[in-house]
Amino acid sequence: KLSFYFQSRSKEQWTYTIIPETPIEYYWSNSLGFGISYGFSGDIPTTAFTEIRYQFFTKNDASLPYANNLVIRLGVEHIMHNDVLLRYGFGLIPSAIKLTQPSVLVSLGLGFDVQSVRFDIGCNLQHRSLTPENFYWSIDEEKVYQTFGDIVLSASKSF
């Protein structure tokens, strides 16, 4: 299966709370994406997929801290014998902020059907290191490690 998408977003302006009365214009990114998935038959049917997404900003001014970037994700989905979908994946997620290291992404999830409702449970864990030039204020550390994650629960109904 091949997939392609385009997503467009608008500009937002807000006031940064740490530096009072300093308006910051944040330009949302646009993105183009391309994905490929292939299903393997066997005792445990498996689908392997990859996604490549290019994010770019509508206003690319050298004074702005934003950088265009390329996101790469790989994943696998197994259909277990009890019809539970087991998913796991990996990715390299560059930061949209210049000079910030990319995040390494690890994801894990399950999907299952109850009659015509599909339930999905997943989690993403990302990790990256930051250096003093990534902060607006001075820090004493040579590196700061950042780890963060998401837990996603969804239900969808098919007709």
Structural account:
With 159 residues, the chain is mostly beta strands. The protein contains no helices and 10 strands. An 8-stranded antiparallel sheet has the order 1-4-5-6-7-8-9-10, with no helix packed on it. It has a two-stranded antiparallel ribbon with strand order 2-3. It is elongated, with a radius of gyration of 20 Å.
Shape: elongated
Q: Gyration radius, to the nearest Å?
A: 20 Å
Q: Ends: how far apart?
A: 22 Å
Put simply, the count of helices is: 0
Largest sheet: 8 strands, antiparallel
Strand ordering within the main sheet: 1-4-5-6-7-8-9-10
- Helix-strand pattern: EEEEEEEEEE
Residue fraction in strands: over 45%
Category from helices, strands and their pairing: mainly beta
Could you tell me the number of beta strands?
10
Mean pLDDT across all residues, rounded?
Answer: 82
Helix content: under 10%
- Catalogue the unreliable spans: none
Report a brief summary of the structure.
The protein has no helices and 10 strands.
Write a concise keyword list for the protein shown above.
159 residues, mainly beta, 8-stranded antiparallel sheet
Tell me the layout of helices and strands.
Elements: E1 2-7, E2 11-15, E3 23-27, E4 29-40, E5 46-57, E6 69-79, E7 85-93, E8 103-114, E9 117-130, E10 144-157
Antiparallel strand pairs: 1-4, 2-3, 4-5, 5-6, 6-7, 7-8, 8-9, 9-10
